[in-house]
Amino acid sequence: MDKPQFDELLGGSVSLPRDVEINKLAAARANEIAAMTYAIENPQQTKLIFQRLPIHMRRRVMSHNAKRMPRRLREAHKTQMEKSGKPGVPKRPSRKYRRRPHNLLSEYKRRQRKNLWLETHIWHAKRFHMTEKWGFKIAHFSNDKASRSCYRTVKGHCTIQDISYYNCLELKGPVDVLVTALKVHCKYEKSFGANAYKKGDREGSLTFYRANGCPVGVINFMWRLDCLGDKTMWMWVHPSLIKDVLDELVSSFNLTEVSSTAESTLSAKLFVNATGCSLEFLTLNRFRLRGPMAPTVITDALRCPLKLNQVSSSLENMEVDIAQPWHKLWYQELSHQKSFDKQKDCFDKLKKLNSPNQFPRHGILGLTVLDPRFFFPPKRTKVEFKSSTQSYDVINVDPSSAASPLWESSVRGDVKNNFKSTEQINKLKSGNLVPGVENDQGFNQDIITKVPVILVQHPGTEANNKSIGFNSGIDIILPAGWALPFWLSFIYRCARPIGLREHRSAIFESMMLNHPDIHHPDTPEYNREAEETRIKLKNKYFRYPPNRRVNFTKLSISSPFNCEWRMLIKEWTDTDTVQVLRDPKIIDALSQAFNSFIRKKHKPLSLNLHDSTVLDKSYLVTVKVTVETKGKPNNFAIICLPTEEDLKKFNEDRKWGGPIEKKRIDKFEAKRKALRIKHKMLLKSERRKRILARKTGQPPVLKAFLEAKKIEQKKIMDELYLQQCTAVRKSCDREVIGYVAQGGFSFSECSCFGWGYVVALPLLELLKMKNNMVLVRNIQTRQYRCARLDIVNLYS
């Protein structure tokens, strides 16, 4: 049944007037509004203020802590809490809470007295295992499982590593003086003064030598492009090499320190000499991005300003105004403005690259970009290739694009001092028409800080069995104080952060051994690192109970935790000088000779390798051993010469597992057992004496006597478990010719291999036998494995 209408015009019973009195209508509605407001402010219900909140916003602590309430309800909540009586006495905070530092900044400075922190330290400390190395706190490895996933990221996307712990040395002076003094520190590669590097549009890399010819390690360097008078060069030195490199530079240039103070740090040192040369430590940040998506990540995170400054043609407008930003003063020069235009064009080309290898090798690109915090995406977003074509041609880059204001110390200081806090930027963003919506393109670029950066291309591996350009990427150099904003900007584009362990794994996959992180046996840092590793592994070995320790004597392993290079060379050549072969011509000749065994095409060699004047037989040659069957070579594995019988068996059966080492007799095993029993009896006897003395009230037995006995027992047992190494070459059934420095499973080759060093003399014996097969045995097994030997080119 239909409901009757209200208006009489529609069939109802009520007659409505055609007009109303505004005063009466407004007064009636005002009374209704007042009544509604009173009902809201004075509810008749018994609910408390915090009970009116939605369930997802309620917290138990709100009942006694008003600060956890929303700000709009906080005062009303306090009023209700006062009506309920005096609040209870809160419990005493925990001891950990009471001992917390009240000033975090001063606490962080105190904790950096021993090891310095990078600018991204706090970000890494929450997500990485940190390690103390070279005077820094450095990220070692990620908390998540990252071995295989990091390889996938290097191969298909982009990894990022903070390498700001590298030392940047700025060397200034007349170019002829610099090149002449630095020439003694180069040997086989292009020197510091090579035209390819001196132009300033490429970064150089070479092995730094002492004046006496002893190698120190690999360093990177770059010349400044736009120098009218004295030239400027930056040298990027690994922190483990900085002391040796600094001593050599001070000696070669006759430098004296002028800024030494009682509290001076390494980064504040300055050295000068009489010829106008100076050496200064700079504080710069450097990130290492590796992977095919490195250009895409960088171009998506960075924005170039539309314009920096109009070029002034009149001299009156060229007056220096100290209050002006640095970029307005810098880009007043026509040459700098032209360089900026070319850099923007090159940056646009960078957006279309499919691989970092499309950028010129070791090329340098200077940029001036906007503060990346204005362009953070709302959430982490994985970037995709912007280019629709699959071209891999190398782009053309103008040499003047390498110019950068970052070379100027005044610019670096101005950029660091004018750093805006994240709070200031968030306040600017909160003033948007719709806060939270990404409309940063609408900001006036004049209020955004301009930051000079430098991009440096890093070519990937060129090995035959590796994918082209694997582990290639781009390094970005930043001014001090700007590491975290740029780091977070790259992280928001899903660049995967890695530590030292993952980086060393990437080097192992790419086999690019001419790297600052790789120390060869003839360098001082290798000896220091080897000794630290030996002590660490030895302590770990003796933490195991006696029945869980590997008996290396029975396995015929003379040096399980280090490589006895000096002794091995002396047993083969009667000399004890450790030298690694670095001559590219000899390395190419050896590689050509051993590759001919695989291809079965014997080509005439360009050099007579058996001539002692061409190749010193005591050299250590860098090699790669790939296991032919099952088995995985590990660190410190020994490389041995096969016998004719071994070669015959392998040629008959390619799946042959390899020979087995004879089990040796440990002549100290019975002595160790007897000493252990005797020591246990001594400990029991001393314990009974202590108990008897405590019961009879006699003076207790001196603990110093017992501690001395324990130390003596430990020293004797250590010597009986790990005897002093007296022979290496003939320590087992097969003659040892070298060691594996690093080994494992390779994801890129889907096989197990290792790289290490062998003595040149037995290597030439293999060459005479026209054979490239060797035997590899790990330190915890008696099983030899057949492996194929290849020569590694350190300069590939």
Automatic annotation (TrEMBL):
One Gene Ontology term, aspect cellular component: ribonuclease MRP complex
Domain POPLD: 473-565
The keyword Nucleus is assigned to this record: yes
Biological process per Gene Ontology, one example term: tRNA 5'-leader removal
Pfam families: POP1_C (PF22770), POP1_N (PF06978), POPLD (PF08170)
Taxonomic superkingdom: Eukaryota
Subcellular location(s) of the protein: Nucleus
Domain (POP1 C-terminal) ranges: 619-792
InterPro entries: Pop1, POP1_C, Pop1_N, POPLD_dom
Region of interest called Disordered, as start-end residue ranges on this chain: 65-97
Bias kind Basic and acidic residues: ranges: 72-85
Keywords, alphabetical: Nucleus, tRNA processing
Keyword Cytoplasm appears in the UniProt entry: no
Domain (Pop1 N-terminal): residue spans on this chain: 27-100, 106-173
The name this protein goes by in its record: Uncharacterized protein
